[in-house]
Q: What sequence folds into this?
């Protein structure tokens, strides 16, 4: 069986299992196992695994080829059971960064780039300080820190495994203006009356425990504690709105990601808490995904 046929067969298996992107999944898993890129697959797809007949000095020997094919088959089987590709490969791209992932953290998603862009647009000064609450892989903090090297960026997460992963991502990406600490929301911060941030951002749990989407797709395998919140998904958003004002500089911004039906509720929270210039921003799919407000002051 040629490589083209092998990947096509795997894609058909994933399609039958309900994958929304079967061909892409099969190609990504093949590239992960072989270390080849998509161009190589499209160019040399008529070869068989381990084929050396055309004098390719980079071809693997037969033993390694058998191991690679067995590994590929195992990953396809796991994906057919619904396991997210990001967990199978241990990596997901976010805002141009290749981030390591693990089942202890949420998988970074393109919609969250809306939150990063909102923060970057408001970080107009050469220096400042941003706080990322519930940082997970460190995706938001690292994407922002990479674009604003003059800023100090801090990330907080209640999961020690997440904090360790975020630190590893920062080290591997060589982003030095960021630090991560373990703790429960604002209780993780030092008891320092002078501690204040120009921007506070968060992608907190915001899904209702009764939401049927929790039984579908990748979220079945993601940590429930990072997905579900009480009060129909609004409890953690409310906590952040209620507490963030005590840690923002005058004129500082609070920006929150939320579910596409929650924008009005979050705007109401911010209005009631006294924030100014409250607004919601739409994600790539056109849904209101991020709501933000400005602390009164300078």
A:
């Amino acid at each position: 069986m040629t490589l083209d046929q092998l990947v096509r067969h795997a894609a058909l298996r994933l399609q039958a299992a309900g994958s929304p992107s079967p061909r892409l999944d099969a190609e990504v898993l093949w590239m992960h196992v072989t270390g080849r890129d998509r161009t190589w697959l499209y160019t040399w797809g008529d070869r068989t695994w381990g084929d050396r007949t055309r004098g390719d000095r980079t071809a693997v020997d037969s033993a390694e080829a058998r191991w690679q094919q067995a590994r590929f088959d195992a990953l396809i089987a796991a994906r057919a059971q619904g396991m997210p590709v990001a967990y199978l490969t241990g990596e997901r791209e976010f805002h141009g960064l290749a981030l390591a992932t693990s089942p202890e953290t949420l998988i970074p998603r393109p919609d969250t780039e809306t939150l990063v862009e909102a923060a970057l647009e408001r970080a107009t000064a050469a220096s400042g300080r941003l706080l990322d609450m519930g940082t997970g892989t460190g995706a938001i903090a690292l994407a922002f820190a990479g674009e604003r090297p003059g800023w100090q960026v801090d990330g907080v997460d209640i999961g020690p495994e997440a904090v360790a992963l975020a630190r590893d991502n920062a080290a591997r990406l060589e982003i030095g203006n960021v630090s991560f600490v373990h703790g429960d929301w604002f209780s993780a911060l030092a008891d320092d009356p002078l501690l204040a941030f120009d921007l506070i951002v968060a992608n907190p749990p915001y899904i209702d425990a009764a939401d049927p989407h929790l039984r579908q797709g990748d979220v079945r395998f993601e940590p429930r504690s990072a997905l579900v919140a009480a009060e129909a998904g609004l409890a953690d958003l409310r906590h952040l709105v209620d507490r963030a004002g005590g840690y923002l500089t005058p004129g500082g911004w609070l920006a929150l990601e939320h579910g596409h039906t929650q924008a009005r509720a979050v705007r109401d929270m911010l209005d009631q808490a006294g924030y100014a210039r409250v607004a919601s921003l739409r994600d790539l799919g056109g849904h209101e995904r991020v709501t933000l407000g400005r602390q009164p002051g300078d």
